[in-house]
Amino acid sequence: MKKNELHPSPFEIGTFILIIITSILGAIIGLEIISSLGVTPNTSIIGALIAMVLARLPLNFFKKFKSIHRQNLVETSISSATFGAANSLFIPIGIPYVMGRTDLIIPTLIGATLAMYIDTFMLYRLFDSDLFPAQNSWAPGVATAESILAGDKGGKRAGLLGVGGIIGIIGSSIGIPMSAFGVAFIGNAFALGMFGLGLLINQYALPLFKVDISSMYIPHGIMVGAGVVALIQAGFLIFKNKSSSDSSTNSKYTRSPQATKKTLSIGYIGYLVVAIILALLGGLISKMSIGMLAAFLVYAAFAAIVHEIIVGIAAMHSGWFPAFAVALITLLLGILFGFPPVSLAILVGFTTATGPAFADMGYDLKTGYILRGNGKDKRFELDGRKQQYYAGLIAFTIAVVVVALSYHSFFGQKMFPPIDAVYVSSIKAGATAKIAEQLAIWAIPGAIIQFIGGSSKQLGIMLATGLLISTPNASWAVLVGLTIRFIVGKIWHEKSTTPMTIMAAGFIAGDALYSFGTSTFNTIKK
To answer: Residue 249's pLDDT is what?
Structure first.
């Protein structure tokens, strides 16, 4: 980059038009696939490819998209629209629909929209802080950045990425989770080792040992214990440098501990205000005593911010995030606290709206961080980050419009995210003393493991994440990947780091392209 170079803006006319088009495309794809298959595809690489293809058209208008930074803005927008529409908006409004309370759909959509905007604001302000360092893995972001750089520079980098991409597509087509394999070469080895162990236990506990860990609430309890310790560790990170100034000039991060504290405070107040709005719109005042209503509001805001932090930590270290499962944990605790069914539906919809957009924006900012030179030019990095945030806001706004205009059509065809049925059945079933006992018992080992690993490794959170994710053979992909990484590192040492990272990015990109293609094809076929 040239000195004093200005970062492109998403409000440039050509870029703005492409962002609108790709955001609409991303939102529609997200809604179709989350309602039919229950998953959300990674569309960031698709957005980057669209920009790359347009840049090669023989028209002057499209030449500007040769800029890797404009490509970054486009991939940010399509990815934000996809996760925003599917995870942050459609899942929450599907809960009152499945529950038979269609009168709560609009209030839930309003609350989810506000929560999504706060969620994104917080990641923008927390990225590259003590809590969420830019140097950490954020593996899908690395994959997108390497794809863009390969398209820009070509040569050996493009060859390695292409080979990795082909292997990723082939592996995915025969049932190997290549994203998990690729992440093993990029992320923290200790964190990923625990993640792989959790996946392994999840896959084999029932068939080999006849132990149903989900029905015993083992993963949920471990996440509760690990989550509590993780929050204490996060607090220690934030408050340990009381004497440091607000300026982060002397810090290796662009966000100071003071800025982090301020962001978390603003976020909690914001979530509390949204919880109050939801309580008013949902008519909770007439259904709950003043004391219970106050407890609900405090808990809802706290659960929302905890949900996004835990989901963000998991996404940062593993490239996967157990958003559905963590929302279910906050719901189970809400049931145990005795909140009435309507308030529980609002609660789980509210917390579900936080986390996915947070994690996805982290991936996008990691992509931008690499493309902008890994923070070498602080001014350019901060400006680029801000432009990505604006691109994300445009995309989220388009996602709101798409969901508001299309949810009638989806619900009219009985199409809704499958996880909503799980949330509603949990609300109707209620909680028992047995569930509380299981959560308390398994919270203890979760807390101990998290404490031992410390905030840098997040061993408890990563073990619980693996235990909560049911993807066949993902455990073997992670563990084999870590083994190969160790052997290659021993033989070639640091020389192997960059080629292996590019190959791993290819594995992840190939898996994303295959998943996107098959999901889209199956949805169209249906």
So the answer is: 47
